[in-house]
Amino acid sequence: MSLSLDLGTKPNGLLAYFGADPTVLFLGDCAITMRDFVLLVEYVMTNTDLMPDDPRLRLIRRMISMCVVAGYNPGSSRLVVNVDHVSLLQDLK
Fold first, then answer.
1. Strands 66-70 and 30-33: what pairing?
2. pLDDT band at 21 (very low <50, low <70, confident <90, very high)
3. For an engineered disulfide with 9, which of 5, 21, 59, 83 has Cβ 3.0 to 4.6 Å away?
4. Going by C-beta distance under 8 Å and a sequence separation of 6 or more, which residues neighbour residue 82?
5. By C-alpha distance, which of 12, 31, 30 is closest to 22?
6. Which residues have C-beta within 8 Å of that of residue 13, sequence separation ≥ 6?
7. Is the link from the previous residue into 74 a cis peptide, with omega within 30 of 0?
8. CA distance 21 to 74
9. pLDDT bracket for residue 90 (50, 70, 90)
10. 30 and 24 in contact (C-beta within 8 Å)?
11. Do residues 19 and 26 make contact, with C-beta atoms less than 8 angstroms apart?
12. By percentage, how much of the chain surpasses pLDDT 90?
């Protein structure tokens, strides 16, 4: 599965995906380790003042609602957002 970034990203439709190693996120042709990605998220969340209707506040609400469920692979676990998809999609607008 991949995620197409097309809400203002240049180039439009840049793909984010995980390859065989789940600790490395690919963003286009760039490989970002999970640890660096977490640092990047913290940087984005804390480096500038909040704006009206700031999407970072919606992200925090979604992250707070997350819970751990059974993973895709036997014996593993994963995080899911514990809100219905309709409200999640509305938050992304």
1. unpaired
2. very high
3. 5
4. 65, 66, 67
5. 31
6. 4, 5, 6
7. no
8. 17
9. low
10. no
11. yes
12. 74
